[in-house]
C-alpha cells in the first residue's frame, strides 16, 4: 500500500466549521480512513468524471475498503467545463436523491475544479445541506477551488453566477495525482499558485521565480511546498473573510479579465481557466501601471515569470480568436463583484501588494484592452 512520506496539514479556521487540508505525495492512501471518520463508517457517495474515474477511483475505493467501507457505485459525469451547467446539475441531483439519502449522507468530490464545484453545490442543495469532502486531483483545484467553500455552476449569463458558500469537511490533496495531468493542465493550475505570491506573499513569488520550473516539471518536494503554501495563504484569507466582504476579493486577481476572456472563447479548451487568469493578472498589473499605482518593473517581473514557464500573458497568445473589446467589457460588467454598476478590480501597488478598486476610469480599461488585443 502506498503511503505518504510527508504530509502537511493546513487548518482552515472557521470555528465549528473548521477543517483540515492534507497535502502530500501519496496522501490519497489515507483517504479511506479519513473519510470513514466523517461518515461514521457509512459509505459516501463519490462523484467524479470519466477521466478521473479511470485514473484514481480504484485507489479511493480500495482505501475505503481498507477502512471497512464497501463503496457504493460512483456517480460519473462527463469531463470538462461544460459539465458545470444546469443540465448536469439536475442529473447529479437526481442521481443523489435516487439513493434515498438522509442528512447524514456525505458526498466525495474526486476530480478537478468542475467536479469540486458542482459536487459542492449539490451538497449545499441536497436536503438543504449535507456534508462533503474534497479530493482534488488537479493543481488548480488543489491550490484554489477545493479550499474555501465556493461552490456553483455556470449559466449562459456568465461563470459561477449560480452557487452557494458551503465548506467541505476535509480536503485531501495528493500531489502524486498531478503526475497524470497533461503539462498544459499543470500550467493552468500554476497560474493560481503565482497568484498568491502576487497578491500578498512577495517572498513566495521570489521562491517561485527560482523554483517554478521544478513545480511545473514534477519535482515532488517543490510541488508539495507550492500546494501547501498556496492552501495556507488561501486558508488565512478565507478564515478572516469567508463571504468575500473584504480581503477575500483579493483572490480574484486576474479573474475579472480572465473570466471575460474565457466567456469569449466559450469556456472550453481554447482557453483554460488558469490560462485566462494568467493573462488577466498581467492585464491587472498593466492597468495598475497605467493608473500610476504600480512600478512598471513589478508588472514586467510578473509577466516575465508567467511567460518563462510557458503560460500565455496576452490575449494574442491564444491562437485563432478574433477578440472584441466591446464583448469583453460587456462580460466584465456581469462579474459577481460588480456593485452599483461599477466593476471591482483587483489591482496592485507592487508584487505582494494587491488591493481592490471600484472607481477605475472605464476609458483606461478600454484603452488597455484595445492595445492588448492588437499586439
Key words describing this protein structure:
375 residues; Rossmann fold; Dehydroquinate synthase-like, alpha domain; alpha/beta; seven-stranded mixed β-sheet; 14 helices
What is the tally of helical segments?
A: 14
Order of helices and strands: EEHEHHEHEHEHEEEHHHHHHHEEH
Count of domain modules: 2
**Approximately what portion of the residues adopt beta-strand conformation?**
15-25%
Average pLDDT metric: 95
CATH class of the largest domain: Mainly Alpha
State the end-to-end distance: 53 Å
- Would you tell me which CATH topology of the largest domain applies? Dehydroquinate synthase-like, alpha domain
Rg from Cα: 20 Å
**Corresponding CATH architecture of the largest domain:** Up-down Bundle
Amino acid at each position: 500500500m502506498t503511503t505518504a512520506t510527508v504530509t502537511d496539514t493546513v487548518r482552515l479556521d472557521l470555528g465549528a466549521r473548521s477543517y483540515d487540508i492534507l497535502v502530500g505525495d501519496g496522501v490519497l492512501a489515507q483517504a479511506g480512513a479519513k473519510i470513514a471518520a466523517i461518515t461514521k463508517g457509512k459509505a459516501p457517495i463519490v462523484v467524479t468524471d470519466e477521466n478521473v474515474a479511470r485514473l484514481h477511483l480504484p485507489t479511493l475505493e480500495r482505501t475505503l475498503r481498507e477502512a471497512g467501507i464497501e463503496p457504493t457505485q460512483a456517480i460519473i459525469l462527463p469531463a470538462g467545463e461544460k459539465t458545470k451547467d444546469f443540465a448536469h446539475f439536475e442529473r447529479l441531483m437526481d442521481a443523489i436523491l435516487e439513493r434515498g439519502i438522509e442528512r447524514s449522507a456525505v458526498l466525495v468530490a474526486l476530480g478537478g475544479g468542475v467536479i469540486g464545484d458542482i459536487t459542492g453545490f449539490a451538497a449545499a442543495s441536497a436536503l438543504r445541506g449535507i456534508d462533503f469532502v474534497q479530493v482534488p486531483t488537479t493543481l488548480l483545484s488543489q491550490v484554489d477551488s477545493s479550499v474555501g467553500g465556493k461552490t456553483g455552476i455556470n449559466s449562459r449569463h456568465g461563470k459561477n453566477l449560480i452557487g452557494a458558500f458551503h465548506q467541505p469537511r476535509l480536503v485531501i490533496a495528493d500531489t502524486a495525482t498531478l503526475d497524470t495531468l497533461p503539462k498544459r493542465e499543470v500550467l493552468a493550475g500554476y497560474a493560481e499558485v503565482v497568484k498568491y505570491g502576487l497578491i500578498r506573499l512577495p517572498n513566495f513569488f521570489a521562491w517561485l521565480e527560482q523554483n517554478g520550473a521544478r513545480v511545473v516539471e514534477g519535482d515532488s518536494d517543490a510541488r508539495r511546498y507550492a500546494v501547501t503554501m498556496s492552501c495556507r495563504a488561501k486558508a488565512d484569507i478565507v478564515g478572516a473573510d469567508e463571504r468575500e466582504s473584504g480581503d477575500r476579493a483579493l483572490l480574484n486577481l486576474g479573474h475579472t479579465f480572465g473570466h471575460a476572456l474565457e466567456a469569449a472563447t466559450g469556456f472550453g479548451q481554447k482557453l483554460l481557466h488558469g490560462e485566462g487568469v494568467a493573462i488577466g493578472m498581467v492585464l491587472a498589473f498593466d492597468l495598475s501601471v497605467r493608473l500610476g499605482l504600480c512600478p512598471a518593473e513589478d508588472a514586467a517581473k510578473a509577466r516575465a515569470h508567467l511567460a518563462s514557464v510557458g503560460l500565455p500573458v496576452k490575449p494574442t497568445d491564444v491562437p485563432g480568436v478574433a477578440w472584441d473589446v466591446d464583448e469583453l467589457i460587456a462580460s466584465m460588467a456581469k462579474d459577481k463583484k460588480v456593485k452599483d454598476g461599477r466593476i471591482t478590480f483587483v489591482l496592485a501597488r507592487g508584487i505582494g501588494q494587491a488591493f481592490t478598486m471600484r472607481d477605475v476610469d472605464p476609458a483606461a480599461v478600454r484603452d488597455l484592452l484595445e492595445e492588448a488585443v492588437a499586439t
